[in-house]
Design goal:
Blueprint: H1 5-11, E1 16-17, H2 27-39, E2 61-65, E3 68-71, E4 75-79, H3 94-105, H4 115-127, E5 133-137, H5 140-155, E6 159-163, H6 180-185, H7 195-198, E7 201-204, H8 209-218, E8 223-228, H9 244-255, E9 258-262, H10 275-279, E10 285-288, E11 299-303, H11 305-308, H12 327-343, H13 346-366, E12 372-376, E13 379-383, H14 392-395, H15 400-412, E14 415-416, E15 425-426, H16 433-450
Parallel strand pairs: 1-4, 4-14, 6-7, 6-8, 8-9, 9-10
Antiparallel strand pairs: 2-3, 3-4, 5-11, 10-11, 12-13, 13-15
Bound molecules: pyridoxal-5'-phosphate.
Length: 451
């Protein structure tokens, strides 16, 4: 783990550590938010940032360093959002900055192939062996949308199975019971999506293999693919039950459907080879994003060579992008993947996550707060529910009022936690044991004043 504290502090003499003494002054954020609301819907460019469900206004960020965020009012926060996952190595990792700066120096986009595109594709195929061929895109949304298109073309079938509370980006056919962003706002699916687009989407309860078996029986020879978050991040963190993912792989094989792992969150985070390495399952296709690019707009989809060979110009499934494989984004991605490959930070990151999860569990028991903690390497959710959360329905039984109170308490203590009960918090390799202890104390204080 890199200790970024000292450098960070000396760089920003103005930064105040929010230590719960009094209410922090967010006046500059408030002013920016007023301006933003006039010209941007809801004042934000992605609903997850709006802080509506925690009855707060967004904090505007000026800069970030290591495990910290600094807002426009010069308040410092320990960052557990990490751009919703991409900043796995923390903010301003020197290797990543160096690679991006060098790339920018050579121009920012060519619209013709470059070396870094080849390097990142080779690295992805090496680190995730089920990926034999890969196509770069600009976001996780594009990755999932394109993977489904290829799966439909390959199987010559239309219907897809997804799971309630899993999010696969905002493409039309996925906006059925799609988890966090919509759940936070209380939207079941989305207006503007024609019924015709979602009638080919079957949404089933996560962790319910019987429901999957039944759906395959009912829709014989119609199902092109099953798309799943192998560890759910978008209902809060939900782990797959023993046998669930294996069951999906079996059902797909038996019925000639493709298994798509959406590893946009878990890819390169929970293990070098993603959740598929952790659970030892080979999906047919894999979707990547977030931690692939260290904070640059990037995504990728890939998998079996015979399936990916259908993608244009090798095959006839059309998928394109003006900025796909962008030289700066791919150079940063190459740097990020090389650090992950050579430094193998997963043991330490898992240990740190376990320390936070265990510490929180003990504390929650001590203060008699009905809550459970779910975690995987580098990601964690505190559910304010007495019973274990195993699917979207059980996640929705959480006390979101309590979550909101605790979130506001954490912010006062200098902890930037994801502003929704239905999201996972993320840890980076720059988070430290000291910060984890601080976080557990902040939670304790926030929960006690919320009780
Ligand atoms: C964030 C996310 C996406 C969408 O990625 P974007 O880059 O936001 O388009 C897809 N799948 C999962 C599991 C995600 O968490």
């Amino acid at each position: 783990m890199v200790e970024a504290t000292a450098e960070t502090k000396s760089k920003d003499k103005q930064a105040k550590q929010s230590n719960g003494a009094g209410t922090p002054n967010h006046s500059r954020s408030a002013k920016l938010f007023e301006r933003a609301k006039k010209v941007i819907p809801g004042g934000v460019n992605s609903p997850a940032r709006a802080c509506l469900s925690v009855e707060s206004e967004p904090i505007f960020i000026e800069r970030a360093d290591g495990p910290y965020l600094y807002d426009v009012d010069h308040i410092e926060y320990v960052d557990y959002v990490l751009s919703w996952g991409p900043m796995l190595l923390g903010h301003r990792h020197p290797r990543l900055l160096e690679a991006a700066e060098q790339a920018i120096d050579n121009g920012t986009s060519y619209g013709a192939p470059c070396r870094a595109e080849v390097e990142i594709a080779e690295l992805v195929c090496e680190m995730i062996p089920s990926v034999e061929m890969v196509r770069m895109v600009n976001s996780g949304t594009e990755a999932c949308m394109s993977a489904v298109r290829v799966a439909r073309a390959f199987t010559k079938r239309d219907t897809i199975i997804k799971f309630d509370g899993c999010y696969h980006g905002h493409a039309d056919s996925f906006l059925v019971k799609a988890g966090s962003g919509l759940a936070t706002l209380g939207i079941a699916s989305s207006p503007g999506v024609p019924e015709a687009f979602t009638k080919e989407t079957i949404s089933l309860p996560y962790n319910d293999i019987d429901a999957v078996t039944k759906a395959f029986q009912e829709h014989k020879d119609k199902i092109a693919a099953v798309i799943v978050e192998p560890i759910v991040a978008n209902s809060g963190l939900i782990l797959p039950r023993d046998g669930f993912l294996e069951g999906l792989a079996e059902a797909c094989k038996k019925h000639g459907a493709l298994l798509i792992f959406d590893e946009v969150v878990t890819g390169f985070r929970v293990a070098k080879g993603g959740a598929q390495a952790l659970f030892k399952i080979q999906p047919d296709l894999t979707c990547l994003g977030k931690a692939l690019g260290g904070g640059f707009p990037i995504g990728a989809y890939g998998g079996r060579k015979d399936v990916m060979s259908l993608v244009a110009p090798l095959g006839s499934v059309y998928q394109a992008g003006t900025l796909s494989g962008n030289p700066v984004a791919t150079a940063a991605g190459v740097a990020q993947l090389r650090v992950l490959k050579t430094e193998k930070p997963y043991g330490e990151l898992k240990e740190l996550t376990d320390k936070l999860a265990e510490g929180l569990r003990t504390m929650l028991k001590d203060v008699s707060c009905p809550a459970t903690v779910a975690s995987a390497c580098g990601m964690l959710t505190v559910f304010f529910a007495a019973k274990e959360v195993t699917d979207f329905a059980s996640a929705q039984k959480c006390d979101t009022q309590m979550f909101g109170k605790v979130w506001r308490g954490l912010l006062k203590e200098g902890i930037y936690w994801p502003p929704s009960q239905f999201e996972a918090a993320f840890l980076s390799t720059m988070h430290t044991k000291k910060l984890v202890d601080k976080t557990i104390s902040a939670f304790e204080k926030a929960i006690k004043s919320a009780q």
